[in-house]
Design goal:
The complex is a heterodimer of chains A (104) and B (140).
Chain A (H helix, E strand, L loop, with lengths): L13 H12 L2 H17 L3 H15 L2 H21 L5 H12 L2
Helix pairs in contact in A: 1-2, 2-3, 4-5
Chain B lengths: L5 E8 L5 H13 L4 E10 L5 E4 L8 H7 L11 H8 L6 E9 L4 H9 L12 H9 L3
Antiparallel strand pairs in B: 1-4, 2-3, 2-4
Helix pairs in contact in B: 1-2
Classes of the chains: A mainly alpha (104), B alpha+beta (140).
Chain lengths: 104, 140
C-alpha cells in the first residue's frame, strides 16, 4: 500500500455544517427529519423486518411535520375567533390575543 | 473542480470488513462514473463501548484494508473529528464500521442543470428498499 499521508480532521463537521446551513436555507425540517430517522433507526436496531415496519411508521409520522407549525396557529386563531363569537372574549381581548399569537 | 452531491455512509459489520468482496464492486462503480470515494475512515467499538478510529494507512499489510487503497480518490479529511464523534454514538458495541464519504458523480450534471435553471432540491431522502417493498406490499 502506498503510504497515505496522515490527514487532519479538524475541519468543521459535515453533519453539523449541514444542519446549520439548512437552518439558514430554510430546509431545516428536512434535515432534522433525516437525522431523526437515523436516530430512531438506531434505537430499534433489531430485526430487518421490524426495522422496515418501524421505518414506515416513522415516515408516516414524519410526513405531516413540516405543516405542523402552520396548522397549529390556524387552529388557535380559529379557537380565538370562536371564543370571540361566543362572547368569551371582548374585541380588545381578541385583538390582543391574536397579536400575541401572530407575534406582531 | 465542482463537486457532485455527497453522501456519508456508515456501514457496520459484526465481523471483519469484507474488503476483498466490496472492492471489485466499488471499482466497477467508480470506473462507470457512478461514484467516487472521497474519504474513508474506520471505527471499531469494543464490547465495553471504547472506540478506536483508524485509517487505511494504519492497516498496511492487511488484505481487507489494502483492497480499498486504490479505490479512494483522495483522502482529504472531509470527514471531521466532529462527525466521527457523532457517528461513534451510533455504532454498536462489538462492531467494526466503515465510514465512507461517497460523491454521487452520476448526479453532477443533473445538479448543474438544476442549479442553472434556478431549481433547488427541497427534500432528498433515501428510502431503504425494505421500506419501499413494505409500502408496495401494503393492502390499500
Amino acid at each position: 500500500m502506498l503510504l497515505r499521508p496522515r490527514v487532519g480532521r479538524g475541519r468543521p463537521g459535515l453533519l453539523g455544517t449541514m444542519t446549520r446551513t439548512a437552518v439558514v436555507a430554510g430546509t431545516a425540517t428536512a434535515t432534522v427529519n433525516a437525522v431523526g430517522n437515523r436516530q430512531s433507526r438506531r434505537q430499534q436496531a433489531a430485526a430487518e423486518q421490524q426495522a422496515a415496519q418501524q421505518a414506515v411508521v416513522d415516515q408516516q409520522q414524519a410526513a405531516p411535520a413540516p405543516a405542523a407549525a402552520g396548522d397549529d396557529m390556524m387552529t388557535q386563531l380559529k379557537q380565538l375567533g370562536d371564543m370571540k363569537a361566543s362572547g368569551l372574549l371582548t374585541d380588545d381581548e381578541f385583538a390582543a390575543a391574536k397579536a400575541k399569537l401572530l407575534g406582531t | 473542480m465542482s463537486r457532485a452531491p455527497m453522501e456519508l455512509v456508515v456501514v457496520e459489520f459484526s465481523g471483519a470488513i469484507p474488503g476483498a468482496q466490496l472492492a471489485p464492486e466499488l471499482r466497477r462503480l467508480i470506473d462507470a462514473d457512478v461514484i467516487r470515494i472521497v474519504d474513508l475512515v474506520f471505527m471499531e467499538k469494543d464490547d465495553n463501548g471504547d472506540v478506536v478510529i483508524f485509517e487505511l494507512r494504519d492497516r498496511e499489510g492487511e488484505d481487507a484494508y489494502e483492497a480499498f487503497d486504490e479505490l479512494v480518490y483522495a483522502v482529504e479529511g472531509l470527514i471531521a473529528d466532529e462527525d466521527l464523534d457523532e457517528i461513534a454514538a451510533d455504532v454498536q458495541a462489538g462492531r467494526t464500521a466503515a465510514i465512507l464519504l461517497v460523491e454521487h458523480v452520476w448526479a453532477a450534471k443533473l445538479a448543474e442543470i438544476t442549479r442553472g435553471a434556478g431549481g433547488e432540491v427541497v427534500w432528498s431522502e433515501r428510502i431503504p428498499a425494505a421500506v419501499a417493498e413494505a409500502v408496495a406490499a401494503a393492502v390499500v
